[in-house]
Amino acid sequence: MKTRLFLAGLLVLPPVAWSAGTTKSETHLTMDQLPAAVKATIEKESKGATVGEIEKETEGGKTFYEAEIVKNGRHSFVHVSTRGKVLKRESAQQERKAEGAEKEE
């Protein structure tokens, strides 16, 4: 009986432990709500374009900001660290692909 309970516990723990490490949160912000370094980077990255949605995201314990940039009808995204460093630039297609992969997990 104890062996069965132990084995059942082993089957339950990995998914619980895995999901705890993949928590994700998002908060929508305006340019005025951004830290100065992040705001300056987004302004530089979006020169000559329009800034759409801005989100503060936390994934796996790491926080970053994602801004949607629209120029000539094309959407792109930039990920910026809390210190204002560009972490990643993505096209709209890359963003959709990445979000689709996240939903599958």
What secondary-structure arrangement, pairings included, does this model have?
Blueprint: H1 2-20, E1 24-29, H2 36-45, E2 50-59, E3 62-71, E4 74-81, E5 86-91, H3 92-104
Overall description:
The chain is an alpha+beta fold and 105 residues long. The longest helix is centred in the first third of the chain and has 19 residues, at 2-20. The protein has a five-stranded antiparallel beta sheet. The model is unreliable at 2-10 and 13-20 (pLDDT under 50). The protein is 40% helix and 38% strand. It has a single domain (23-104), classed as Nuclear Transport Factor 2, Chain: A, CATH 3.10.450. It has three helices and five strands; from the N terminus they run H-E-H-E-E-E-E-H. It has helices at 2-20, 36-45, 92-104, and strands spanning 24-29, 50-59, 62-71, 74-81, 86-91. The chain is globular and about 35 Å long.
